[in-house]
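The data layer described in this paper is built around a simple, fixed record for each protein. We quote a single record here, exactly as it is kept in our systems:
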Amino acid sequence: MYPIHEYAPSHFPSLREIPDVPATFFMRGTLPLPGTRMLAVVGSRDYTNYGKQCVQHLIKGLRGYPISIVSGLALGIDGLAHEAALDAGLHTIAIPGSGIADSVLYPRSNRHLAVRILREDGMLMSEFAPEEKSMPWMFPARNRIIAGIADAVLVIEAKAKSGSLITARLAHEYNKDLLVVPGNIFSENSAGVHQFLKIGATPVTSALDIVHALHLPERTEETTATVSYPEGTPEALVLHLLREPKASDVVIRAIQEKHQLSVGAVNTLLMRMELMGEIVSGSGLLRRN
């Protein structure tokens, strides 16, 4: 259904900067449009809820920009990045540590994601022969392609010995912009990220930080309608309270006290606002989307 084609590395000029450039690549799907900037997103397989929220929030904020999200189709942050890209209407490139034929695509549990990527005009890409099964040595080799094809590499959660740090180190060696999302200092998933902050990686706390790193102009037009609630309504109070993330019980108690609502009524209101995409809940916290 999605044929495999061979392409020369010249389709991706940035790959000329890496050593041992493959003579050919095997690809399925749709190439990114000319002028598209490549953002590699890598991170922990064992991500936290914070890491998941960061992936979704940052990539959602890139909607409408000429950016392709590049990652390795792996479990964890990789898979979340591909999904978030598709949800945001962005092109995405999956570079697995295997061939790209359906019979060998790795990991098997993400083959449904590979199908979605192809169906929604993304691309699978590998230097390995289409039917070549995954082997441990393929992953470091694949990581150099991810780092090489990217204009910038974003790391979201990585332990001190995480495999994603290989991609980050290669990005540094290839003179690519290295971006990291700062994490909880008490979490082992932040140890690898903070290593790179110490040597000058760019901290990312918003989608605009990524836009600037990719040297793209900011978009000035409104891309989504902003919901406005009349002053004095419970919804308006929720948005006012969530100018900074707050514990769910703090928000619920404040709305109860101000508007004399039952806990059930407040929870229904918050659920409705979450379904509308106005707020996000997780780990006992609420924040604006």
About this structure: The chain has a mean pLDDT of 89.
